[in-house]
Fold this sequence. Notes:
The complex is a heterodimer. Chain A is mostly helical. Chain A folds into 2 domains: about 15-55, no CATH class; about 65-290, MetI-like fold. Chain A contains 13 helices and 2 strands, in the order αββαααααααααααα. Chain A has a two-stranded antiparallel sheet with strand order 1-2. The radius of gyration of chain A is 24 Å and the shape is globular. The relative contact order of chain A is 0.13. By secondary structure, chain B is an all-alpha fold. Chain B has helices at about 5-35, 55-65, 75-105, 110-120, 130-140, 145-150, 155-170, 170-180, 185-195, 200-215, 215-220, 230-240, 250-270, 270-280. In chain B, helix 2 (about 55-65) packs across helix 13 and helix 3 (about 75-105) crosses helix 7 (about 155-170). Classes of the chains: A mainly alpha, B mainly alpha. Chain B: It is found in: Cell inner membrane; Cell membrane.
Amino acid sequence: MQTKRMTFPGRWLPYALLGPQVIVTLIFFIWPAGQALYQSLLREDAFGLSSNFVGLANFTRLFSDGSYLNSLSVTAVFAIGTTLLSMSAALLLAVTVNRMLRSRNAYTTLLVWPYAIAPAIAGVLWWFIFNPAIGIVPYALEMVGYRWNHRTSGGDAMLLVVIAAAWKQIAYNFLFFLAGLQSIPQSLIEAAAIDGASPTKRFWTIVFPLLTPTTFFLMVVNIVYAMFDTFGVIHATTQGGPAQATNTLVYKVYADGFVGLNLGASAAQSVILMVIVVVLTFVQFRFIERRVNY
Amino acid sequence: MVENRPLGNLAAHLILISGVALVLFPVYIAIIASTHGPGEFMRGVLPLTPGDQAVENYRLMWEAGLAKAGSPPAWRMLWNSLVMALAITIGKLFISLLSAFAIVYFRFPFRLFFFWLIFITLMLPVEVRIIPTFQVVADLGMLNSFAGLSIPLIASATATFLFRQFFMTIPEEMLEAARIDGAGPLKFFRDILLPLSVTNIAALFVIMFIYGWNQYLWPLLITTDPDYTTIVMGIQRMTSTSGDETPDWNLVMAAVVMAALPPVLVILFMQRLFVKGLTETEK
């Protein structure tokens, strides 16, 4: 890795400068992660008095546990649903805004502010709108003959948390799509127009393929967001229910470890989540290396 | 735009206006709900026009909070959120600037090791190591304190990398000139690097303030004392009332509006810095 050609001499100063960051990292990141690895190999007795080494038993137990497998598939549905909904809405809006000349900035301002809303608050907002007793949406759905109730129907609950999580993320995707669109050379689009390609054809044969790097990057970011940053959406609304229909992996780590006090199982889940983050980070950085060389 | 299509423009405006309406809808409903008296919520569906209880609701929430749900007054929760967000933001900026400076302007043994150590924090968000991190903070006696709320969150790989990248673009001649004039490392850092980094610092400040303000899981874990309740987690407590009792939606929504206002204002007034911070931290 590079430094400057010329550097400062100094034997202790660089360590002192790195000190605060390294100390915080060691105490609050590396040590707990090590603890999670270690605890994932132990099992405590029923009273929490002693623990013994059980090897990979916590992991094999997890993968034969119906509720964990359920949580895996819930997370997959939630992540894919959130990513698809949020990215397609953002792409539609970005392409449309990009046509505008005078009103572009005004629309952009109106569309980006939900980025500032905390996931938990986004959850509460949609929870309120969809409230079966007083919410406005169930009232409208009732008129077309659908009885909405996210307290009893797992499908309704999943739809609710997907909408809340996707709503908050539209702003982010929108900004990146807009930046991607603006980096596409106008001459390509003009050439296609002269050859008689309609706007729809131009979008699918020129714009969309050239956006692929942005789309791929956003896909990874959105999956990470849906898996790890949406704890607030779940905790403030469905709390994993009804009947575990929205019990995502991160929520389950919290519920099993903090509420259920099952440390070994919770630590094993933490380790699996770490592996998932490492893989996703790797994918993201590999891809960014490639994008730089484009 | 390539050709002039009046119908296309009309359709585009329609799409955008409905998009904006959908994005605004939940917040509009929250604002409306916060202006009605408690009685409106017993009568079935919520009205879509403002009521006349706005001043009472906000004053009650601000001064007294929601005692029956164990919530402190909003001013205290907002203050806690502000202190936590600023501590996280300033802490992150401070330690990232220092470590980026060390990594770029010094050669020393284990430099690469430290770089990777910082990089690893990207792969260990709080969400994946909830219990052991809680235990560490508990062992250090940092539960129910601002130190516990902020310090464990201030390690920042993204900020360090951003500053490293930025420092690499600063011309070599700056350092040469400074050294010829006899400036030591700390003077160079303070009088040359910091002034040059102002825009980057401001852009990151916006992003990290929003990040800090919106923290949810961490305050939930380590604070039990209502004196340290932050507004974002306080709202969750207000909605989860026991049994059949319905939450006081008018007050909850007043709190929601107050919780969302500071970060939204930051984005609206510093939109350019926000976009810069967002797009550059993700590179």
